[in-house]
Amino acid sequence: MVNQERLVAEFLELVQVDSESKNEAEIAKLLKEKLTALGLEVTEDETKAQTGLGSGNLIARLKGSVQTADPILFSCHFDTVTPGNGVKPVINGDLIETDKTTILGADDKAGIAALLEGIRLLKEENVAHGDVEFVLTAGEEIGLIGATAVDKKALNAKYGFALDSGGSVGEIIVASPDHAKIKANVHGIAAHAGVAPEEGVSAIEIAAKAITNMPLGRLDEELTANIGMINGGLRTNIVCDLVTLTGEARAITFSKLENQMKVMSEALEKAAVERGCTVDIDVSYERVGYTLKETDPVVQVAKTAIEQIGRTPDLCATGGGSDANIFTLAGIPTANLGVGYLDIHSKEEKMPISELVKLSELVVEIVKVVAVK
Ligand code: ZN
Ligand code: CA
Q: Which of 57, 159, 349, 350 is 20 to 30 A from 70 (CA-CA)?
């Protein structure tokens, strides 16, 4: 059974170690010690010089005795967003919060605490299991940098589970979107705004009209689009002749992404042509998404384990990306699982203790399901 007191104490310990992205050395050292003390073979990979992060990634191996069990991995990241230094956790009923001056860092230390508790339980309860790898990464929050650098060929896992998603314990992220970026330079014609405005065409007006005509925001259940940056103009007395705008779209289905880029480009071209001007547009795609099938072993295992801890599996898509994308694209299908953390990336971040307990149970249950599968 989960030792709630021990689990909470360890979670509190972890969140009080400063570990904003690029400052991971101290937390990596602590986790290495903890995993070693639990009897795992732990190595820090040699990616630190290449990534410029505060540490490499930690790869810990728990040897199993069940030879027929699929080797699996669990992954979490140990870096946090800012402001993440000097976290002072406060327990408020079932919730662990902060003093509201920093984030909490339950993203993703709740996952790590659950893994550590899970390993202890496997040992205490003498659970028969197969080989399990724990891949704890640095630099996730600044672009999945640690996970990207991990040598996937050195991993034995057939499939994996990332503990790093919002939503309650029971949620399984089975799809994550591909990305597209659009960058446009809208060219107007400069003129003195007071002396000869009729000789100018404002690139700002063209851009405004184009953006007004673009479908943006959440466009359907899997398609989103956003103009995130707009730059232009020099002075109030000059009709602006250049505006640069940069945006993105995300979709699980790639053709929707191509269509959205076409719609956004056409809105820009139409608005420019109407004013006798031009726009140059640069569109690029990143195929970073993945879709896991319900019949995939990784999803089957997650579903069964979630049912066995008394929760209802909820298969859903996300608009974001995580280390799960990186492992899946590298050939180790990895489902990102709901951790139960709330309001992450804000000073309101909190972690329900009940979810932390459930997540630890889930770790043990996944290992058990794989062992008897
Ligand atoms: Zn995270
Ligand atoms: Ca995050």
A: 57
Q: What is the pLDDT of residues 82-123, one digit of tens each?
A: 999 999 999 999 999 999 999 999 999 999 999 999 999 999
How many Cα atoms sit within 13 Å of 129 on the Cβ side? 25
Cα(273) to centroid of ligand 1, in Å?
A: 44
Q: How far apart are CA 276 and CA 273, in angstroms?
A: 5
Q: 243 alpha carbon to ligand 1 midpoint, in Å? A: 35
Dist. CA 336 → ligand 2 center (Å): 12
Q: Is 79 a catalytic residue?
A: yes
Nearest ligand to residue 110 Cα:
1
Amino acid (one-letter) located at 350: K
What tokens does 363 get?
């770790």
Closest among 359, 313, 140, 115 to 351, alpha carbons compared: 359
Tens digits of residue pLDDT in 19-62: 999 999 999 999 999 999 999 999 999 999 999 999 999 999 99
- How many A from CA of 163 to the centre of ligand 1? 8
Q: Is residue 140 flagged as an active site residue? A: yes
Place of tokens 């991971």: 24
Ligand nearest to the CA of 108: 1
Contact 78, 35 (CB under 8 A): no
pTM of the predicted structure, to 2 decimals: 0.89
Which ligand gives the minimal distance to the CA of 84? 2
- Beta-bridged to residue 80, according to DSSP, are 20
Distance (Å, rounded) from C-alpha 327 to C-alpha 317? 17
Active-site residue identified among 108, 140, 355, 361: 140
Task: Check whether 373 has a pLDDT greater than 90.
Answer: no
Which of 14, 132, 120 lies closest to 77, judged by CA?
Answer: 14
Report percent pLDDT > 90 for the chain. Answer: 99
How far is it, in rounded angstroms, from Cα 362 to Cα 220? 32
Indicate the Cα dihedral angle 109, 114, 120, 123, nearest 10°: -140
* Residue 337: strand pairing partners: 163, 172
